[in-house]
Structure formats: C-alpha cells, structure tokens
Amino acid sequence: MLKLAAFADEISPQLDEQIAVCRENGVTHFELRGVYGKNVLDFDRALREEIKSKLSAHGMGVISIGSPIGKVKIDEPWEPHFERFKIAVDAAEFFGSPFVRLFSYYAPQAGGDIGKHRDEVISRFRAKVDYLKDHPSVTLVHENEKDIYGEKAAGCFDLMKTIESPKLRMAFDFANFVQAGQEPRDAWAMLKLYSVHIHIKDAIKGSGKVVPAGEGDGQIEPILADAYASGYRGFLSLEPHLKVAGHSHGETGPELFKTAADALKAICRRTGIPLAGA
Length: 278
Description:
This protein is about 40% helix and about 20% strand. The protein contains nine helices and 14 strands. α4 links the parallel β6 (about 100) and β7 (about 140-145). The model has no long low-confidence stretch (mean pLDDT about 95).
C-alpha cells in the first residue's frame, strides 16, 4: 500500500489549518517546508517543538525535510551553504524524517550551462553524502528541477552513478521533467531503480502550466502503475502548485488541495493501486 504525504505549506501558512486539511484528505505525513511563513531551515527550537507536538497529537509524521539546499547558483560560497545543509540534516533527525530533499545547483548566469560545472556539483554532493556517515538515519533525495544539473534524467543518472551511495536517491517529479522538455516515461525508465520518493504534480507541455494529476503530460498514471508493479511502496507526496508555482514555494489553498488529492486518488483507483487514506 502506498502512503500519502504533502507539502502542507501549499494549503496555508498556518500549522493548524495545514494539519486539518491534510487529515481531511487522508494525508498522514508532511513534506516539511514552511510554517507561519518561515522556511524549515529557519525554525527555532520552540517552533520545531510545536510542530512535532501537534503532528504527534494527530497521529501524523514527517517523511521529508523539503529543504532548498542546492537551489542556488553553483558559484555561491560553499561553506555557508554547507552549514545550511547541516541544519536540514539536524531537522530530519529531530522530526524523525528519513529524507532530506535537495537540488543540484544552477549555472552562475541565467541560461548558462551548468554542465560546465559538473566537477563542482559532484564535489558538493560527495561532501554531503560523506557528512551522513555520522547521521545514518538520513537519506538525501534529489529532486529534478528545471535548469539545475539534474534537470533531466541524464544529469540525475550521472549524479546517482557517480556518487553511487544508498544515501543519495531520487525524488521523482513528473511536472518538472515536463517543464524541462523531458519525456517523463523515458526519465522513469532510467531512474526508477534510484527513486525512493515520488512528488505528485502534473504539467502541460509547452506552456509548463501546472495542473491536477492526470490532466497534463506527466504520464503519471502509467508510471505509478509501473512503480507499484515494480515494488514501490513509499509515499506519494502532493506538491500541487495549483495557484502559484514559484521558484521556492507553491500555493494551492484548501479547496484546490482537495482537487489535487482527489485527482491522485482517482488515478490510484483506476490502476488498482491501494493508497492509504483514499
């Protein structure tokens, strides 16, 4: 049986509303990115405690820290960014989250070729994976994102094969592949053995407009069917972006969040995939 998670900050900045709407829609875990307008890497101890306590009281948990690590230009200073990365790992340990979501850097200039900076990208990922030797409960999940090194399957595969560590895996995102001009089924064929987490959002070719699951060109239905048949039993994490699809956040609201959740549940019913809470 697959399980349902969400970037709950797309519902509302308010924690209580995030929890309530998630529970109404069968979501059991947060992909923790923002609460009260603060990024997860900027939570103080009191806010961490509040979130952990309220989630626990409602029988909920955290599946991933939705960090922005790696969503910066590759020539930005490394040490401050690495310190932020350490905060993400600490947050994962605090919330009992197995995953930290991260990215693989932009070129120094907009529209530039990040491929020219491959060695630096690899070096930074090696340092992050090495850091996890003392943090064995945490795994990094790389999300494909337009314009970063791993925007398409080839770059993602290069990261996975070059680092070759069980501590670095994929968070597969359908809509981001569409927006990057990659056929999602081709990407899935290359990356499914590395994919331990799946983000649910869909998009339309050309415009890149984000739409509910199954209404775009993300090929979500056949890929999920193959994932389940191949033994995937992890989380499907709703990241709908149905109102705002920003660089560092998305916005959906309670009503459209239900639309997004219902669209995914319908796909699971059609394909015979059991989904907890559906």
